[in-house]
Structures are given as structure tokens and as C-alpha cells.
């Protein structure tokens, strides 16, 4: 990080601060949080609902900024991340760190004052989980980093639900679990076709440490587990058939793509990763569609 810190820099552009928040990742965070809030049985004032989602988005952005501040040297080695503000030398690391701290602390404080301290506490845990537990501890040390660290991305619908109801019940825990089990196949599909980057950076991602075939088997295992888990909200009576049927169909497609990834052996570096890229792309569509079905079901039942 010393090399980055001492680089000659022009004044930081606002777009670099925005990039620190990982807006593409944040869009999924905001969406699942909003779906959790809307699907909850209680209703809160629209201004408070907006405030709750804003706090979740800002908190996620703060955690992402702290993640990039800590991993600046690693990002500089990887082609996928070398253009980010810190490794590219467009930003002072201290500014990035302070930006992340301010966003994180401000989001938790506002959530507590405006919405409730239970939601604020869960938001604080989610920020700490991603910025410290995953980024500092898990990612550089174990190939299970994504499995354990998946909890970081699973908090948003739980926080949204708690913001609306003020309590933790079975439904938001199941929503948390769905994202938790979705994360490994989603991220390992990506890791399979960028594994050379992780190897170069010394990050012990599953394909680098355990090999491709072991990673493929793990992807298939989690996809198998995700299918019945995704239908649990329907089984426990938390949703109706709109969500239940959607979950079955979406998860069967997810499983079919995972089978293609799980059983195949790549033939060459050039053509090997088409199914993996298809699974990665579908996994994003899957989560958006699954939570959209949750909201649609709620609106039908209302």
C-alpha cells in the first residue's frame, strides 16, 4: 500500500468515491433489503422506509470502501480490479479509509435514531462482518472464505424485515439462509474463470487451493441444497404459491446450470468457461427474480 500512498495524485473525482461503494454490488444489496422490507407483514411510513433502505445502502457502501482500502495492494495485482481508484493511484488511501468509516458509522447511527436499535445493531454487525471478518481475516486465510463470509451479503433482507417489524422471526432468517447458500456457487462460478488472478494475488480461493474439480463439486452441492431451501418460505406459510412456484422453477434452472458446471472437465483455456459464465450470470438474475417473486406474492396476498 506504500507505493499507492506515495503515488502522485490529482484531486480525487467524486466518481472515484462512488466507485469505492461498489455500486453494482450495492444494487443487489438495496434490492434484497427493499424486498425484505416490503414482504414483511408490518408497514412503516414511506419516509422511514426510504431512510431504512438508505442506511443499508450507505452502510454497504462504507463496508465496500473499507474493503477496497484494505485490499488495495491485492487489487493492484488482479486484472479485474486494477482499475479501481486506489490501485490506479487516483485516490489517497487515507481518504478512502475515512470515507468508509464515516459512511459506516453514519448509517448505523441514523438507522438507530430513525428506525430502531435492533435494525441498527444488525447493520453494524453486517458492516463489521464484511469489512473485518471477511476482508481481513477469512479471505486471505482460507478457501472457505466465501462460505463463511457469505453471511455478509445475506444480511440486507433481514435488516429490511426488522426495520419494518422491529423483530426477528423465522421468515427473515430463511431469507438470510437463502442468500448464504446462494453465495458460494455464485462466487465460485466467477472464481473459476478468474482463478489466475487470485493465484497471482495469493488469495486462497477454492479453485486455487482445492482445484477446479473440487470447486465444481462444491458448486453442485450448494445448488442441490439451495433448491429445497428456496421453497421453505412457502412451506412454513410465509408466502403463497406465486413465490413457491417461482422458487421451484428458478432453482431448477440454477441446478441445471450447476450440473453442467459440476460434471464437466474443461478442455482448453479458451472454451472451458462458457457454462461457468452462464451460471454466474444466471445466479444474479436468480436472486433478483426470487426476491421479486417474494414481493409479488406479498402484493397478491395483500
Q: The CATH topology of the largest domain is what?
A: Tetracycline Repressor, domain 2
Order of helices and strands: HHHHHHHHHHHHHHH
CATH class call of the largest domain: Mainly Alpha
Q: Kindly give the count of domains.
A: 2
The total count of helices amounts to 15
Average pLDDT over all residues: 90
How would you characterize this protein structure?
- The structure is a single chain.
- With 302 residues, the chain is mainly alpha-helical.
- It has 2 domains: 1-167, UbiA prenyltransferase (Tetracycline Repressor, domain 2, Orthogonal Bundle); 169-302, Four Helix Bundle (Hemerythrin (Met), subunit A), CATH 1.20.120.
- It has 15 helices and no strands.
- Helix 4 (46-70) runs parallel beside helix 7 (117-138) and helix 6 (93-114) packs antiparallel against helix 7 (117-138).
- The radius of gyration is 20 Å and the shape is flat.
- Mean pLDDT is 90; it is low at 1-9.
Topology at a glance:
Layout: H1 2-5, H2 14-20, H3 23-39, H4 46-70, H5 72-77, H6 93-114, H7 117-138, H8 145-149, H9 151-165, H10 170-193, H11 195-201, H12 206-209, H13 212-235, H14 241-263, H15 274-301
Helix pairs in contact: 3-4, 3-9, 3-15, 4-6, 4-7, 4-9, 6-7, 7-9, 9-10, 10-13, 10-15, 13-14, 14-15
Amino acid at each position: 500500500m506504500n507505493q499507492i500512498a506515495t503515488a502522485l495524485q490529482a484531486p480525487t473525482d467524486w466518481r472515484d468515491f462512488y466507485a469505492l461503494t461498489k455500486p453494482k454490488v450495492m444494487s443487489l444489496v438495496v434490492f434484497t433489503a427493499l424486498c425484505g422490507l416490503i414482504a414483511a407483514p408490518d408497514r412503516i411510513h414511506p419516509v422511514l422506509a426510504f431512510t431504512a433502505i438508505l442506511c443499508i445502502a450507505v452502510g454497504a457502501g462504507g463496508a465496500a470502501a473499507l474493503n477496497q482500502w484494505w485490499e488495495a495492494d491485492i487489487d493492484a495485482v488482479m486484472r479485474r480490479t486494477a482499475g479501481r481508484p486506489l490501485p490506479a493511484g487516483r485516490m489517497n488511501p487515507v481518504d478512502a479509509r475515512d470515507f468508509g468509516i464515516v459512511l459506516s458509522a453514519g448509517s448505523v447511527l441514523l438507522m438507530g435514531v430513525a428506525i430502531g436499535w435492533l435494525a441498527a445493531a444488525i447493520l453494524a454487525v453486517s458492516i463489521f462482518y464484511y469489512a473485518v471478518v471477511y476482508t481481513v481475516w477469512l479471505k486471505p486465510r482460507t478457501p472457505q472464505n466465501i462460505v463463511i463470509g457469505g453471511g455478509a451479503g445475506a444480511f440486507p433482507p433481514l435488516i429490511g424485515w426488522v426495520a419494518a417489524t422491529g423483530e426477528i422471526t423465522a421468515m427473515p432468517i430463511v431469507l438470510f439462509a437463502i442468500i448464504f447458500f446462494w453465495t458460494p456457487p455464485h462466487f465460485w462460478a466467477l472464481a473459476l474463470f478468474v482463478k489466475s488472478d487470485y493465484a497471482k494475488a495469493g488469495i486462497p480461493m477454492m479453485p486455487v487451493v482445492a482445484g477446479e474439480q473440487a470447486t465444481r463439486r462444491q458448486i453442485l452441492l450448494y445448488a442441490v441444497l439451495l433448491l429445497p431451501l428456496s421453497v421453505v418460505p412457502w412451506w412454513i406459510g410465509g408466502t403463497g404459491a406465486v413465490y413457491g412456484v417461482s422458487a421451484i422453477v428458478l432453482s431448477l434452472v440454477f441446478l441445471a446450470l450447476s450440473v453442467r458446471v459440476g460434471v464437466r472437465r474443461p478442455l482448453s483455456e479458451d472454451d472451458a468457461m462458457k457454462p461457468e459464465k452462464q451460471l454466474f450470470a444466471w445466479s444474479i438474475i436468480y436472486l433478483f427474480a426470487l426476491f421479486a417473486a417474494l414481493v409479488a406474492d406479498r402484493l397478491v396476498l395483500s
